[in-house]
Amino acid sequence: MSHLLEVKDLRTEFRQPTGTLHAVEGVSYHVDAGEIVAFVGESGSGKSVTQYSTLQLIPMPPGKITGGEIWFDGRNLLTEGQKSAALQSVRGAEIGVVFQEPMTSLNPVLTIGKQLTEGMMLHLGLNRTQARDRAVDLMEKVGIPDARSRLDAFPHQFSGGMRQRIMIAMALACDPKILIADEATTALDVTTQAQILELMKDLVEQTGTALIIVTHNLGIVARYASRVHVMYAGEIVESGPTREIFKAPRHPYTIGLLRAVPSLADERDRRLIPIPGMVSSQVDPPDRCAFINRCPYAVAECETEPRPVLQAVGTGHVKACHRDIDLQTTPVRQFEATARTEAAAAPSATTPVLEVKHLKVTFPTYGGFFKRKTGDLLAVDDVSLTVGKGETVGLVGESGCGKTTLARAVMGLQEVAGGQIIFDDRDITGLSPSQMRPLRRDISMVFQDPYGSLDPRQRAESIVAEPLGNFFPDMSAKARSERVKELFDLVGLNPDQRSRMPHEFSGGQRQRLAIARALASEPSLIVLDEAISALDVSIQSQVINLLEDLQARLAVSYLFIAHDLSVVRHISDRVAVMYLGQLVELTGWRQLYENPLHPYTKALLEAVPIPDPDDAANQRRIIKGEVPSVMNRPAGCAFSSRCPLATDRCRVDKPPLEGRGEAHEVACFAVQAGA
Amino acid sequence: MTVLSDAKPAATPNLTKLRVKGFFSRVPVIIGSVIILTVVVFAVAAPLIAPYDPAKQDVVARLQPMSAEHWFGTDGLGRDVLSRLIFGSRTSLLVGLFSTLVAGCFGMAIGLIAGFVGKWVDSIMMRVMDALMSIPIIILALFLGAVLGRGLGNIILCLGIVMTPSYARVTRGQVLSVKQLDYVTAARVSGGTGLKTVVHHIFPNCLAPNMVLATMNLGVAILVEAALSFLGMGIAEPTPSWGGMVSQGKDVLTTAPTMAVAASLFIVITVWAFNVVGDAVRDLLDPRLRGAL
Amino acid sequence: MAGYVLRRLGQSVVVLLLVTLMVFFTMHALPGDPVTIFLGTTATPEQIAHYTEVFGLDQPLIVQYVKWLAGLAHGELGQSIALSKPVGEVLPGRIVVTLSFTLPALVLSVLVGTTLGIWSAMRRGRLADSVISAVASFGVAAPAFVIGILLILLLGVQLKWLSISGYTPITEDPVAGIKKLVMPVIALSFGQVGMFTRQTRSAMLEVIGQDYIRTARSKGLKEKTVIVAHALRNALIPIVTLMGMSIGGLIGGTVLIEQLFTMPGVGSLLMMSIMNRDYMVLQNIVFFIAAAVLAANFLVDILYGYIDPRIRLVRK
Predict the structure, then answer these.
(1) Which residues in C lie closer than 8 A to residue A118 (C-beta atoms)?
(2) Complex ipTM
(3) Closest chain B residue to C136 measured between Cα atoms?
(4) What global pTM score does this model have?
(5) Given A326, A613, A668, B112, which residue has the most CB atoms within 10 angstroms?
(6) Domains of chain B, start order
């Protein structure tokens, strides 16, 4: 039987000033009706370009599809031109695409209705009224309330999650046979991500549409896909049934990926095993295994042999590796210590470094004719928290929950409306910039975006030395340069690279630079604001390990802010959960993950997909609704509008954060009443 | 949140070199650079290159057509047109370069103060800039030129003031956006003072777009100078200027069109060269500014 | 939106007031005075003193300034010294002359420029694109008077199709009137066409690289629909911005054009009054020009709202 879509030996190149980038290098795969297939890989692996190439949606030039066949519906789509009627009748009508960035993928100047209906009118021959009716149906199906009245709204009037629902409605508008979801949920919050994925799964199950999921998230793959293609440097390096790929991976990269990713199902003390180094350049690459520079199993023959081809290792299971590797194979080279460094001193919550007491931060809102101040927006609402010496406190929550505002308040970068911030037994609330400055020696910060937090016109050494110059003005130039070298060593950067400019470093290396800068003045507390979320998974684990080692050696405390629960679990001693400015639960990592009490914490944990196809937890309920904007925070408990346990009392009074059991605080009436 | 690639930067070190190579690989840019070089040589070595003294009058040889002795003929006073064109490049270049410099300094100072201090200082400064911008460049230049007088320094100051607002705007915008960036916050977190942040982080990052603007504005400055001279409000005779020569040629267009055409072509070709090279410099220094400036 | 419009309007009024202040006081720094120039070298000191008093030029500057503003508010523009006529009588006729070639030039610039820009962007890298881009870059580099000179040489002197200079009101002789406008319109709009072409081209190329264009293509829309329905509207913002800016360029260009073609418009009146230090004419002309430019920019800001719902709906 022929397949619904069959791609043979697809090759896509991009012309670049430095040479030819081989983005897709001979990729073959097939998709059958009604199945869910996943493509997994890190950025630059070619997983998205592969999908765009099938529909010729890549920009040409500089892109060019140089070879291959794409069989769909008895036709080879590659023989049709990019702007041909034949291809246009496939796009949207037979194959729909949901793109990664919901914020930029909808046309900002056209109404949702117009964007939803134009495809239907073209492919299904509907008139305007019919198309609008169908659009309303679709919008209801994807879960957009008041569909008819919102038909004439513009994209910017919807949240990111809602826009992605609209994108899905649009992609499904003409009942396509295949739906491609390209990192469709990457930009969304955890709970929204889970909702969107469930929605897509249900829709394709109902309609018999095949779904291609493109993602870097192994949890999503494990939860939804029946077959997986693992891509690396433009090639499929391994593919097979999901269960087999997770349980018996046969390619070193797949194995590495599985070991590098923190999971909710992990023991906390499992040390992540990062994939060392970085992806080799795909610009005019040599004819040999592309993973060789990062492979712990590489032997001499890998150097000399041409690129490995896919070979069968089981039913429908193929891999491209010269060696016969499985999970039990002993690596021939070791890149980094696999044991977790033992902490120099046990973290101690009893000697607090930082105490936040009843902190309130407000933002003024402006409106009216003269932009007068009309009110205050409560971004952080009565939050109390301590960070002990040598301790890591994780702070999790979805976007808009106030976690970054809290961090900025702690750093003295944000005015505080109430409460106290005590650092090292000293009240630092409301200090002036000049009073705050000497204290900054002991509190430093690492930002989310390693591209935005380093001055592009400063050399690496002067970036790292900046705090030294400010806090130790008497330090000699020689001593300073010695210290910079020491810091480079400490964060695992080559000191010889210290005179380079920031753009000459990779994302992971830049984040190491930012960490070196944060460490320069030997602070006792570092605030890490989403410090690893912008990095690729294999690089993330390198940085997590670095942070853990540094803490063990220097006894520094971390306030670790993130939205990724698996990472937070991995690194934190205690975890605080925030929702719309309020702290809803605060406890040790084990209690939180094994015995979450607050309904929001439970919902968050249930939403996280676990990279294990056998994990029963993968069949959990998903919370309904979206995080409301801070402007529309419900009265009483902020979570009451989405909470399954909410009572009338919750909608009026705000539950206080109260102890329940040993070192476990939760802000919920229902839980406190013993429900 | 986007996932950043770890693969890309490996190739960057030689990218700068490639960009410089790309800069010159475009034919118009090579032609433009050669033209600019020629004009600069004309201006610097005018007395050596020019076949005649540009002020030397010859009543017998008035309004002559192109010939071997006078490549572009002579003007109404019998002066050699080619020599006057060559000397005229001095006026164009001096006014263009120095007025751009003046405008850049004024504009950056105003933009830095407005953007960094903010509040009412910002409002007042930017409203004044808006007021200057609401009067078309040529008219403002005419007006200020009449007030300041027709000396070289005065013309430079006049054009400098006229072009100040665009630099002030670009600088202010840049300050406001750089102020928001994490690396400025990081500088504060690392213990830097406000002044130090401005000097070490904000100012250097404002410099690039202003340099781009300046190279792109050189052509405009030369153009406005030519227009002023054409209207008889530019640099005073007998100093030769291209715009003035077009104006003089205009009156004898039917009998001796050579001078007007030659001077016109000098203006167009020079301004074109500066525009092309300016665009290329923008692409080289900061491709993101494409379309923004 | 209404609040935004009013705030923006208020800002324009403030800027216009600043313009009057700057113009008035720098103008009085001009060397020489209108009465002396008007009366010539033979005038006696008594005559000069007399006329200075008649025109109110002996009063303190502040008083003169306030009087001017008060007059403006009542539509009273004062007296031209050089022309011995009320400014209100001189200006309208001059404005008609200037508009008769500036308006066609504006329309031409926008229409031709945007069309060429879109066409060029669609053919990026091909011969047509290269030719258009090259011509446009020369257009941007050529001042209006240079194009004018070349036109006069070609169409007037060589081919003798059109008369070289002057102005005939269309109401008097439509054919001659229009013929005399042809060269001024082309000369004035040539550079503007180049600017619009370049701006439109780069705006279109920028928009075509956006994610939502890929989305539109992924729906299987025809390329024409993608360009017209999805790309063009988004590319309009920078084009409209340029429209606002080009008003100033066009008005500035009128001075050159009127000088070159000896037309009795506002531009030549402006030149004349600078020479004659004719304060009243000068300050009013600059005032009206600045008002026109500010009005154009104000309209552009309103237009943004219509083009982009994000601006319309956010700036409530």
Answers:
(1) 219, 221, 225, 229
(2) 0.88
(3) B272
(4) 0.82
(5) A668
(6) 35-46+70-285 (1.10.3720.10)
